[in-house]
Description:
Elements: E1 24-27, H1 30-39, H2 50-55, H3 65-80, E2 85-93, E3 102-113, E4 116-125, E5 128-138
Antiparallel strand pairs: 1-3, 2-5, 3-4, 4-5
Amino acid sequence: MREPTRTTTLRYHQVAIGDELSDLTLPITATVIVSGAIASRDYQDVHHDRDLAVERGSEDIFMNILTSNGYVGRFVTDWAGPEALIQRVDIRLGAPNYPGDTMVMTGRVKEKSDGIITVELVGKNGLGNHVTGTVDLRLPQ
């Protein structure tokens, strides 16, 4: 079971290389996909029109990168707390997130240097890795 969103922020000295973040399990629904596309003003039809997405060779509508990026940010800030500042996000998309699947995000602290924590993460669904990458966070001293 996932721990609730942290209400206090981790301090830099409290984090060690190798620390694991709590998994985040995200059911992928058509509503999640469409609302994420609308919220990010991505009106590409492959994110909201199933018939056109299939006509263009996709299995169904699929999540856009901006929504995936938002979940990456949520994942690391839920762990780090409200005072954590994201400094850099470096992600790559792989397998699409289709409705009816579930994405599980996992991560661990990869590096720690000069007040910056680097988290390495993977978001995996039934087809494989949907998103992989790293996020740099600045934590209070």
